[in-house]
Amino acid sequence: MSGSQLWDDVDFYFSSHLAPDDEALQAALRDSEAAGLPHIAVTAPQGKFLQLLAQIQGARNILEIGTLGGYSTIWLGRALPADGRLISLEYSAKHADVATRNIARAGLERVVEVRVGPALESLPKLADENPAPFDLVFIDADKANNRHYVEWALRLSRAGSLIVLDNVVRGGGVTDADSSAPDIVGTRAAIDLIASHPRLTGTAVQTVGSKGYDGFALARVLG
Q1: How far apart are alpha carbons 211 and 159 in whole angstroms?
Q2: What's the rounded Cα separation, in Å, for the pair 89 and 9?
């Protein structure tokens, strides 16, 4: 059995036992595919991982940078109390339209708001609203701007908040200090920031599965 087939089989095993998709999640994936969205959503075990992190945090306010079709948004939104709030930022109006329908079908339209536009334009506008600090920030957008997203996450959070950065391994490419690829440069800059910032402490977890070889970085905001 090939390595990739084994990863797929293990993902299926864990998904079926620990993170089974329901109709709303399955429909979100189907509609995203039908609309031609890229196949880059988190896997079911990863979605459940994010949901558990939000629940462990006791999150009432969540910020997501990068909505895509709303699959991860649904997992995160389900971790919130009835009066919780999730703001998700999406660059593409087409993606946001698909996500908004998926979120509504999941019954989360009252707690989830999708905002359309470049995140680095949406984030200053969000800050101007002086929102309650976000308890968890999930970053899964264009990797070239990862450092900027972590900086904004820090600004919009509080002591004890958790910042989760997806796709940091890049198939091992993150180790290439000479790379000029924007996704590698941006990811390495974000990791350097987490490592050096006095208000952050973090680590990274490598993952394998149906989406290949990648991983998460996690950073906790200090006082």
Answers
A1: 33
A2: 33
